[in-house]
Write a structure and sequence with these properties.
globular, 6 helices, 66% helix, binds zinc ion, mainly alpha
């Protein structure tokens, strides 16, 4: 799944749990795993001119930020520091991992895409999944896959309705002044 799916569907999914938390921090959390892992992989790949398994541990775009361990660390930090910002980030990240797993399920079921999960790393000697795209262009072209496209359109729809709700709220607040 790409940006609008995560931002729109992700924030909608966790909305019942995010009252009193910053919407912006939740939105940041919904894309945080990709903000960490995609530049990490493509950065390594660019500078070493290697791809996939050749890169060793960072063998794809679902590595450190896409693990349950990352979510547990973030949630524990939120709890220990009593930080609303980290709590909001954790909710967003949880939605990201859930949506990636759901998209994998449908991509695998309908299009035979390999499951790309490093969720349980480093338990059971689990390794990070090896990327199966041949470069960033092929990776971006999955945006046109119906499973991804439907997610992006739904996400954009949710985002736009949220924005109009926020604008209505802002208008009402101005009228009250
Ligand atoms: Zn992801």
């Amino acid at each position: 799944m790409f940006i609008f799916g995560h931002l729109g569907i992700g924030s909608k999914l966790v909305h019942p749990f995010s009252r009193g938390l910053s919407d912006k921090a939740v939105l940041l959390g919904t894309i945080l795993p990709d903000l960490i892992d995609k530049p990490l992989y493509y950065g390594f790949s660019f500078f070493t001119r290697k791809q996939g398994a050749e890169l060793g541990m960072i063998s794809g775009t679902r590595t450190l930020g896409h693990t349950a361990l990352f979510l547990v660390l973030l949630t524990s930090s939120a709890y220990i520091k009593k930080s609303r910002f980290l709590a909001a980030l954790s909710l967003g990240v949880a939605s990201h991992l859930l949506l990636d797993s759901s998209a994998d399920y449908f991509l695998n079921k309908f299009y035979n895409y390999p499951i790309q999960s490093g969720l349980f790393w480093p338990l059971n000697h689990a390794k990070f999944p090896i990327i199966h795209y041949n470069g960033i262009q092929e990776h971006l072209s999955t945006w046109l896959n119906p499973v991804i496209l439907i997610g992006e359109i739904m996400g954009l729809g949710f985002l736009l309705t949220s924005f109009s709700t926020w604008n209505d709220f802002a208008d009402q607040t101005k009228q009250l002044k």
